[in-house]
Amino acid sequence: MAISAKKAAQKNKKKNPGKSFLQGVKIEMKKVIWPTKKELINYTVMVIIATIIVMAIIAAADGVFSQLFRTFQLIVG
User: Fold this and answer.
1) Of the candidates 12, 25, 42, 59, which lies 20 to 30 Å from 5 by C-alpha distance?
2) Are the C-beta atoms of 43 and 35 separated by less than 8 Å?
3) In the prediction, which pLDDT does 9 show?
4) Angstrom distance (rounded) from CA 50 to CA 39
């Protein structure tokens, strides 16, 4: 019995691997818990705010390091 099931599984693999993959994707997509519109907007706003904060930190660090580099150039010559 196990041998025939194994042969059937091999036959299905050879038949159309793309189709079985897409069926698996469809099944997994049904399991996804999609965010509500309100959650999506909140998450989007949080990502934008976090991006702006990180951008400001990097810009400040860039300004500080470039000023230090200019000062170092003046000292060393």
Assistant:
1) 25
2) yes
3) 60
4) 16
In the predicted model, residues of the chain with pLDDT beneath 50 are none
What are the domain boundaries of the chain? Answer: 1-32, 33-77
What's the CA dihedral at 54, 56, 60, 61 to 10 degrees?
10
CA-based torsion, 22, 27, 30, 35: positive or negative:
negative
**Residue found by looking up tokens 């997994």 in the block:** 28
Tokens of 66: 């470039």
Query: Is 36 in contact with 44 (CB distance < 8 Å)?
Result: no
**Could you give the CA distance from residue 22 to residue 13 in angstroms, rounded to a whole number?**
13
How far apart are alpha carbons 51 and 24 in whole angstroms? 35
